[in-house]
Amino acid sequence: MSTSTFSYTIYAVIAASWVAWGVFTQVERPRYATLGGIVRRMMRHPLMRWAVWASWAFVGWHLFVRGRGAFK
Amino acid sequence: MEATHRAPRVSWRVVSVVAAALVYSWIASGLRPFTHPEAVAVGIPIVAAGIATLRSALRTGQTAAPESRRGVLVWRGLLAAFLIWELITYRSSPREDYPTFSSITDTIMSTHPGRFALFALWLAIGYRIFRR
Predict the structure, then answer these.
(1) Residue A31 domain-assigned?
(2) pTM of the model
(3) Interface confidence (ipTM) of the complex
(4) What residues 70-89 of chain B have any CB closer than 8 A to a CB of chain A?
(5) Helix, strand or coil for residue B5?
(6) Option in B68, B96, B129 nearest A52 (CB)
(7) Which domain holds residue A34?
(8) In 3-state terms, chain B is what percent helix, strand and coil (to 5)?
(9) Considering the domain boundaries, does residue A71 fall inside one?
(10) Could you read off the pLDDT of B24-45 as tens digits, one per residue?
């Protein structure tokens, strides 16, 4: 297995785990905390809500404004 | 007697908001990175979300049902796994062998439809988080 295939496989496993756990928590709610529930709780906290906003803003700015290689 | 089930109707307001968001995403995703127009196009939703966050911070007396804490550790573990792997690949080279999240999204965003899809997804996530 090449190094790049291995790297992509790790990302795929992490992404699949996110999806699998996300589906499980949705099916099992309210027994388990869903991702939406965690974000809702963070948005009620005076500091954490700004951390959520900054994270979302960073992702958007990084991907679309400071992005590399788009339309090459 | 047969029970009648009426499908939930989608209001014109929702349709217009979704249509406007999709048009906005298409226009914004057509702009080039590192340019002022793109910075403004991304900055507008960020400022709007900031205002919504500020308004929610000023609102007092919010009561909400307590959320379950079971499984939070798993979410933290998944986030840590992503961040650790991202850090490992970021510190390694060459990029072809060690793609980062950014380089993967760059590949997706090398076409306008791909860039549009990611922009619309980013906007939708922001709307879901900050609409309250």
Answers:
(1) yes
(2) 0.84
(3) 0.85
(4) 70-72, 74-75, 78, 81-82, 85, 89
(5) coil
(6) B129
(7) 3-65
(8) 65, 0, 35
(9) no
(10) 999 999 988 888 999 999 999 9
